[in-house]
């Protein structure tokens, strides 16, 4: 069948050439050909890569800003807080308390520190 591993049979009409790994130059042309080739490949693909990334970043940034805006309290919703304080005759901090899941009432906050004896 053959002479050994790698030479199992003889082919006619097919010529193969080999170069010993010890004679090869692994980094031949890395600086002279590699850097210009890298720049060329980047310049060819930049128009396919950058626009989707830019659009994705702009959408993400706008969504984050909108989320921050929606998380802020609307000052117009709290314009009548002084009227409620005046009606109750108190200057203490008011907070929204719940009696049940359906009814909401205003109550005086009891989050004040107690007197030390």
Automatic annotation (TrEMBL):
<keyword id="KW-0472">Membrane</keyword>
<comment type="function">
    <text>Component of the ubiquinol-cytochrome c oxidoreductase, a multisubunit transmembrane complex that is part of the mitochondrial electron transport chain which drives oxidative phosphorylation. The complex plays an important role in the uptake of multiple carbon sources present in different host niches.</text>
</comment>
<dbReference type="GO" id="GO:0005743">
    <property type="term" value="C:mitochondrial inner membrane"/>
</dbReference>
<dbReference type="Pfam" id="PF02939">
    <property type="entry name" value="UcrQ"/>
</dbReference>
<keyword id="KW-0813">Transport</keyword>
<dbReference type="GO" id="GO:0045275">
    <property type="term" value="C:respiratory chain complex III"/>
</dbReference>
<comment type="similarity">
    <text>Belongs to the UQCRQ/QCR8 family.</text>
</comment>
<keyword id="KW-0679">Respiratory chain</keyword>
<dbReference type="InterPro" id="IPR004205">
    <property type="entry name" value="Cyt_bc1_su8"/>
</dbReference>
<protein>
    <recommendedName>
        <fullName>Cytochrome b-c1 complex subunit 8</fullName>
    </recommendedName>
</protein>
<keyword id="KW-0496">Mitochondrion</keyword>
<keyword id="KW-1133">Transmembrane helix</keyword>
<dbReference type="GO" id="GO:0006122">
    <property type="term" value="P:mitochondrial electron transport, ubiquinol to cytochrome c"/>
</dbReference>
<dbReference type="InterPro" id="IPR036642">
    <property type="entry name" value="Cyt_bc1_su8_sf"/>
</dbReference>
<keyword id="KW-0249">Electron transport</keyword>
<keyword id="KW-0999">Mitochondrion inner membrane</keyword>
<keyword id="KW-0812">Transmembrane</keyword>
<comment type="subunit">
    <text>Component of the ubiquinol-cytochrome c oxidoreductase (cytochrome b-c1 complex, complex III, CIII), a multisubunit enzyme composed of 11 subunits. The complex is composed of 3 respiratory subunits cytochrome b, cytochrome c1 and Rieske protein UQCRFS1, 2 core protein subunits UQCRC1/QCR1 and UQCRC2/QCR2, and 6 low-molecular weight protein subunits UQCRH/QCR6, UQCRB/QCR7, UQCRQ/QCR8, UQCR10/QCR9, UQCR11/QCR10 and subunit 9, the cleavage product of Rieske protein UQCRFS1.</text>
</comment>
